[in-house]
Amino acid sequence: MTVRKIVKYGTPSLREKSKEVHKISKKVQILVDDLYDTMYATNGVGLAAPQIGENLRVFVIDVGTDPKTMNPITFINPKIIKKEGAINSYEGCLSFPEAYTNVRRYKSVKIKALDIKGKPFILEVTDGSLLARAIQHEFDHLDGILFIDHCRNRFETDKVLAEKGLGGVDSDYLIEEKELEEEIQKNPQQEENN
Ligand code: ZN
Known about the structure:
194 residues; globular; binds zinc ion; 25% strand; two-stranded antiparallel sheet; alpha+beta
């Protein structure tokens, strides 16, 4: 039971591709416990292993807002097997304290992963909800992709990052996502979704 230090934007390991877990060892179980402890201690809804300095393909999510609605989900060696639709929302990240920016995401996502017992499961979330977006956000961390890479306006994002004392957008990592952007613009009612 340890609250670990969260690495901040600019730390090279956040850009590394994480390695698959080969065995649900005691070390992996402790890693998952630490992810939950650290996420709950910082009021996050998701946390990926690289954010506490461990480049392994593991993340946890809990979009429950109070102890009664707690819904912890552990994802080990996840694979996104389907994604469709488009949505935008203001997103933040524990590695970017207090910085929020407008990003593009898929509305629906279907993910396959192993749970903490090593048992495979499939989860599909089709409503563009916080859970759907958190899955995409945390999954990206395992490939060294950060939420700002999905930003809709790099200049606005740069401004927010500068205000929070963080480094700027790295254009080498920006993802174009033309189709997602076109779909978002066709459905402006989704602009308000958060
Ligand atoms: Zn994050």
